[in-house]
Amino acid sequence: MTSIRRLIANDLPRLHNFWVEHWGDEVIVSHGNVYRPEQLEGFVVEDGNDWIGLLTFLIGEDEFEITSLNSLRENQGIGTTLLNEVLEEARKQNSKRVFCITTNDNLNALGFYQKRGFELVAVHRGAINESRRIKPGIPLLGYNNIPLRDEIELEMKLKI
User: Fold this and answer.
1) 83: number of Cβ within 10 Å
2) 3-class SS at 9?
3) Handedness of CA 23, 13, 33, 100 (dihedral sign)
4) pLDDT at position 159, please?
5) Is residue 77 a contact partner of residue 97, using CB atoms and an 8 Å limit?
6) Among 22, 83, 85, 138, which residue has the least CB neighbours within 10 Å?
7) Distance (Å, rounded) from C-alpha 18 to C-alpha 158?
8) CA distance 97 to 87
9) How distant, in Å, are the alpha carbons of 22, 97, 157 from that of 44?
10) What is the pLDDT of residue 74?
11) Which CATH number is 2-157 given?
12) What percent of the chain has pLDDT over 70?
């Protein structure tokens, strides 16, 4: 049986390990910022003791930024459940928008977010090259052997 809950401080070591396994490092770099698990909030979907979905986010002045989203069981609604949870939290805090950054090769993420009401708002050309200066392990080729170059920003404006 699956359940969703908010991440707590005791989850930090496991979150570090999860990121290393699924993101290749203990940090995520996006638009020149380095994100560390201890800076973020998040939600996890569990099946027993197994983490099968995870979303982390950063709360800004009037916006929420999704910094990572993983669903380890595709097409079961895990990603949507996590996304709905963060949207609900953002509305409770009177945020004006929720946004995320993905890469030009991540066609699955681009489709996922747009199907759920997010809109493309910016393409940051060459941004991945800047991120590689901070995190040299970012590969040159991404999904489907697409050259990994650009960051794409998507957002959902929230009604207050």
Assistant:
1) 23
2) helix
3) positive
4) 82
5) no
6) 22
7) 30
8) 9
9) 14, 21, 24
10) 87
11) 3.40.630.30
12) 99
pLDDT by residue (tens digit) across 116-158? 999 999 999 999 998 998 888 889 999 999 999 999 999 999 9
Give the pLDDT confidence score for residue 160 in this predicted structure: 62
Domain boundaries, the chain: 2-157
Give the residue carrying structure tokens 């949507």: 80
Token pair belonging to 77: 């609604």
Give the separation between CA 131 and CA 141, rounded to whole angstroms: 14
First-residue to last-residue Cα distance in the chain: 34
Q: How far apart, in whole angstroms, are the C-alpha atoms of residue 94 and residue 77?
A: 26
Query: Which regions in the chain score pLDDT beneath 50?
Result: none
Tokens, residue 13: 């070591």
CA–CA separation, 141 and 105 (whole Å): 8
Q: Residue 142: how many CB atoms within 10 A of its CB?
A: 17
Contact 68, 109 (CB under 8 A): no
Q: Which two tokens stand for residue 134?
A: 């901070």
| pLDDT for the residue 77 | 92
Query: Distance between CA atoms of 153 and 29, rounded to whole angstroms?
Result: 14
